[in-house]
Amino acid sequence: MECIKKITSILLAQLPPQYVPTIDHFFFNIDLWTNFDYYITLFTNGKFIPSEFSFIPNETPISTLKEVSTYILTYYIIIFGCRYILQNYVPLKLKGVSQIHNLLLTSISLTLLVLFVEQLIPLIYRHGLYFAICDAQAWSQPMVTLYYLNYLTKFVEFTDTLLLVLKHKKLTFLHTYHHGATALLCYTQLIGETSISWVPITLNLSVHVIMYWYYFLASRGIRVWWKEWVTRFQIIQFLLDIGFIYFATYQKIVHTFAPQIPHCGDCVGSTGATIAGCCIISSYLFLFIAFYIDVYLRRGTKKSRIVKRARGGVAAKVNEYVLIDVANAATPSPSPAPSFRNRKSNGHKNGSHRKQRVHGSLN
């Protein structure tokens, strides 16, 4: 830790005084929000001014349940309709389109992420983490603007699936469900004004920066060693989301319906939004439970044997589980049980490499 502090001090000493990071402006003392506000206002010719934006249900675009439901339903009709219509046509390559799409989304995700971080660092530093996720003052005007912009990107991301359909790539339930559910999740939290929204959003943006950058490189034929880490980060994001959301849900439910039970206090946001967010996040948990049951409890099934033989750690197995086409995949033969002689002859080898195997399984 001391080494990191020394290195940080040395690096900061090399910067001109006006670029030394502060609590309020962490990124080289540049006021990112003010600059963002200025350039977006200029770019939109004053039609959208971030610093003056207010989310008003029934007035702001896509601010009603009817609108968001229509968009999500249209998304499913288009992707499944196109998949049916185009099944006898030659798949499109769309290499250039995919590159632009992925580069655009990784850039948008990075921009929103750094703007969120700039708002959150002083908030957490001065008031603490609990204040940032549960207090009404954490629902500030800049944060609401960023929440809404992030919400709009969920509909832009629908084009992920459309590109897969046009290229005749396999559509998985997890992929198609995730896009619709995430758009609905963002809507419910905007309507319900839940201050904890920044937790899943910033985690998701962090993953998307890496994920879409990986897709961009892959579309250019560039192979990277950290491919599996994309899924690992998604799993980490999911676990952190579960922890924070369940904590906030507990605070809200107990404070509202059973205040005599020990808790920290109320968490700002409507009860309906809290329950909706918890249910949507929990649905992802059920998908992971289904993965565990299919792979590790139903050991003799074809899917279980195929997934278990995927090289790598948990992330590699999750990838295989999501993408596997069981009907067309070859059935692997069960691994033969090791004989007593084989176990004895391999005993020394297994013991000497035990640490490496355990480390690999945890990755």
Features:
363 residues, single chain, disordered C terminus, transferase, mainly alpha
Architecture overview:
The chain is an all-alpha fold and 363 residues long. It folds into three domains: 50 residues, no CATH class; 230 residues, no CATH class; 61 residues, no CATH class. The protein contains 16 helices and no strands. It is globular. 21% of the residues are buried.
Q: How would you summarize the topology of this molecule?
A:
Blueprint: H1 2-13, H2 32-43, H3 65-85, H4 95-127, H5 129-134, H6 141-156, H7 158-166, H8 173-192, H9 198-219, H10 227-257, H11 271-297, H12 302-308, H13 314-323, H14 340-345, H15 347-352, H16 354-362
Helix pairs in contact: 3-7, 3-8, 4-6, 4-9, 6-8, 8-11, 9-10, 10-11, 10-13, 12-13
Give me the number of helical elements: 16
Strand content: under 5%
| Number of DSSP E strands | 0
* Count of the domains: 3
Note the main sheet: none
Transmembrane segments: 68-86, 98-117, 197-217, 229-248, 268-293
Region (Disordered): 332-363
Keywords: Fatty acid biosynthesis, Fatty acid metabolism, Lipid biosynthesis, Lipid metabolism, Membrane, Transferase, Transmembrane, Transmembrane helix
Family: Belongs to the ELO family.
